[in-house]
Amino acid sequence: MASSTAAESSDTDSDNFRQNPRSNAATGASAAGTRALSAQLIAFYFRAPVKAFFRTRVDVGAILYTSYLQALGALHAPAKEGKGRIYPPAPPTSTFAAGFSAGAIQSLIAAPLDALQVRLRTSGVLEGQYQNMWEYGWKKLREIGVRGIFAGWSLSLMRDSFGYAVFFTSFEYMKSQAYYSYIIWYYGSLQRKDPSKIAALQEYSKTTIKPHYALEPCFLLGAGIAASVSQQVISYPLGIIQNLHYGRLEYLDHQASLRHSRPQMLKHYYHAYQETFKRCQKRASRSGGWMRWLYKGFLRSSIRQVPSTSAGLVIFELMRRKYATAADTVLIEKDGFDILLTN
Length: 343
What we know:
By secondary structure, this protein is mainly α. It has 13 helices and three strands. The protein has a three-stranded mixed beta sheet, covered by helices on one side. The protein starts with 9 loop residues before the first helix and ends with a strand.
């Protein structure tokens, strides 16, 4: 296999390198906006209780997608060039590490917001005591400090980092490796399937094959579905445990407001995790096992999650190609023919 790219001047390379972070930010914001809007529409369709305080999390999603692009560029050199089509594609180890890093970065922003939302639901502030979540958050920050705001963050870190590592790995593998393998298998074996067609192509010197235009969008859509479901397999059960742990936030808030020393607070956090594990054991036992309890309602949640996530990933890929450089044509040599891939 070989890839042919147009020659670029060093000045152009330098400009593209400087513009790449801005392109990544625009790509991330577009994908995050689409995913957030789609999620709100799906939630409305299923009559989920969407509160006025809980805005679409475009900012958090933009951080996720932008961080992923930057991390992938650092781990896989072709991704740093700003091309619309990355060839050779990034190996799963690189996409897993980039997704893990992006999920961890996003968790720093999302975890405090998630914890504030839980407190909003349990403290009765939705009845008009506060004008918005930020007013409530500022009051809570002064009461319990930064340490209290990040109570339970380790569960959020585990859910987001591993969840998005699998999320982006599944997406990139289906979109790139699986797609390239399929077209190489299908068009590379064309000679064995229909020798007469190959002879006709050779007679008219048509030695370049361009795959059907509808083939790649199908793989792109399938990649979005696979990424969403694979992420749910990890994040859904961890979310169940996290929500149960958040039930002890009021107790931890009270302890944090007493301004205990760091060793004392660490002891309280440790006991809180122990209590959460005991509660998980009881609920799992009543439900007939850990798997049955942790994945109860998984199908319904996945059905709600897949449309918005798939739409966000499709926009993510389209915007990444929109802000790409022009030199992104790929030629794959197979059995004496060139398979041409363009945006």
